[in-house]
Amino acid sequence: MVEIDSQYHNDLIIDQFTKQAIPFTQNAAHSAEYAVKRLFTLSNVSKKDTVLDVACGSGLVSFELAKVVYHVTGIDITPAMIEQANLLRQQMNLYNIKYEIGDVAHLPYGDESFSIVITRYSFHHLVDPHSVLSEMKRVCIPKGRVVVIDATPASDRVDMYNYVEKIRDPSHVKALTFAELLEMFKEIGLTIINTDSYGVEMDLERLLQSSFPNRGDKDKIRQLFIEDVQNNILGVNSHYIGTEIHFTYPTSMIIAQKA
Fold first, then answer.
1. Who wins on pLDDT, 221 or 64?
2. How far, in Å, are 121, 193, 228 from residue 237 at the CA level?
3. Is residue 229 within 8 Å of residue 245, measured between CB atoms?
């Protein structure tokens, strides 16, 4: 496997998500009501909880949590994303959220600081998700919950899935399968208490409008999705609605408890 320079990759993430900050925030699929409800139910969220939202982006998860829990801290490496999060926080008059710019590979918090530590749609961007999950465990209190939500392609489609996602978003590293994510939790010593799997529906053209691949690659992506409609090469249930291609991101949620 080719080793990735972490600083170079962090710069790539910042570049991509500075461009994506506004369109990502406006994409309703990223704040799907079903997924939020399942998160609350399976994580047993309560008004006593203090939450850390790791790689929080523009705060779409943080806002929902803040309506229920005592306090939320969000951290993300991209200043433009934190700017969007603070703008939305002010619009929603939510005063129990604090946002910070920082590298999630080295969380700037003490041991056992939060009762819930969550990340959504971040692991596939990470050079070393194992170490980030270890950091999430470190800052979680005993009996607290650690939650990871991410795309989890089928094992027989994961290579092609990662290929097309890397073209679409150069900051993509590798989406893990559900089995690989489960194994990572077990290796780190977290006890899995709940899991869920569901699909997040996307309109390909709308997604491409908010994506910033290298010049000329959007047509390559469209062709791969046309082939997926015909031959299921990506495993994302690509299909036509009228003349437009829609597809479904296979997504998993894993909730674990720290001993």
1. 221
2. 19, 29, 8
3. yes
Q: Render pLDDT for 93-102 as a digit per residue (tens, 0 to 9).
A: 999 999 999 9
- pLDDT category, 31, cuts 50, 70, 90? low
Cα–Cα nearest to 184, from 111, 128, 121: 128
**DSSP β-bridge partners for residue 74:** 53, 99
Nearest Cα to 106, choosing from 145, 141, 136?
A: 136
How far from the centroid of its chain's Cα atoms is residue 50's Cα?
20
User: Do you know the residue count of the chain?
Assistant: 259
* CB half-sphere exposure, 153, CA atoms < 13 A: 23
Q: Strands, DSSP E only, in the chain? A: 50-54, 71-76, 97-101, 114-120, 140-151, 191-203, 239-241, 244-257
Rounded CA separation 136/53 (Å): 10
6-154+171-200+250-257 in CATH: which number? Answer: 3.40.50.150
CA distance 38 to 1: 35
Nearest to 122 by CA among 99, 141, 105, 145: 105
Position 190, amino acid = L
Does the pTM of the predicted model rise above 0.90? yes
Nearest by Cα to 139 from 98, 97, 109, 184: 109
Question: What torsion, rounded to 10 degrees, do the Cα atoms 192, 35, 130, 127 define?
Answer: 170
Taking the domains of the chain in order of start, what are their residue ranges?
6-154+171-200+250-257
How far apart, in whole angstroms, are the C-alpha atoms of residue 48 and residue 68?
Answer: 9
